Amino acid sequence: RVNKAKVRLVSLELRGKGELCNISLSSNEHIRHFYDAADWLIKYQDERGGWPIPVARKVIAGLLEVKPVRASYFSGNKKYIESAAKATSLFLVNVTQGGIRTYFPGDYVWYEEYPTSPSLFVLNGFMYSLLGLYDLKQSSTAPTNPSQTLFDEGMKSLRMLLPLFDTGQGSLYDLRHFTSQVAPNLARWDYHTTHITQLLTLATVDSSSADFLRATSERWKDYMVGRRARHN
C-alpha cells in the first residue's frame, strides 16, 4: 500500500471543453469539515440540548455524541464535550415529548435515529448512539454520569432485540414491519456491512456482550457469501 503522505502530483492533463473554477490539493480538508460540523451543532443547539428543526434531532443518535466528544479530544477545547453532555438530556425524553427515547414491548429502551410515531427502531442509528454514549462516558469527569446508565440500558436492549433484525439471510434496517404492519425493510448490503462493523466495534468496548455480538457478526458475514440459516 502506498503511503498517501509520499504521493505528489506532478502533472494534470485535461482534454475537451469545459471550465475550471478551482483546483486544490489537500491532505487534511476532512479535518476542517469535521470541525465545521461540530461547530454547527454547537451554534444551533437550543437550551434543551437539541435543535429547533425536528429533522435535526436525529443527529443526536450517534453523530452528535461522537463528533463533539472527538472534537474535544483532538482540539482540547471543552466546548465540544460540554455540548455533547448537554445533548444527553434528550436521551431521557420520550419521542412523543420531543426527545429520541422510545420503548419496545417489554420495556426495552431504544434511541431513535428518526423520532417518529410509530417508532421505526432503526438499527444502525441506535448502535451509533451507543458508540457515542460510550465515548462520552469515557471522557466524562463528572461525579454523576448519565451517559453510563444510558449506555448500559441501550446495550441491554441490543442484546435482547438484535435477533429480531436477523432474517436468516441478511439483516433488517428497522422494525417498521412490526410497528406499522407493513412489509419488512431489508438492509441493503452496504447497511448490512455497517451493522457488522458496528457490532464488532461494540464488542470491543462491552465485555458482557462481546461473545454474543461477535457470534452474530460472524453469522451476518456468512450471509454476504451466500450462506443461509437452516430450514426445518
UniProtKB/TrEMBL annotation:
InterPro entries: C5-epim_C, C5-epimerase
Coiled coil: none
A Pfam family: C5-epim_C
GO biological process: heparan sulfate proteoglycan biosynthetic process; heparin proteoglycan biosynthetic process
Superkingdom of the organism of origin: Eukaryota
One GO cellular component, as annotated: Golgi apparatus
Entry GO MF terms: heparosan-N-sulfate-glucuronate 5-epimerase activity
Domain D-glucuronyl C5-epimerase C-terminal: 69-221
Protein name: D-glucuronyl C5-epimerase
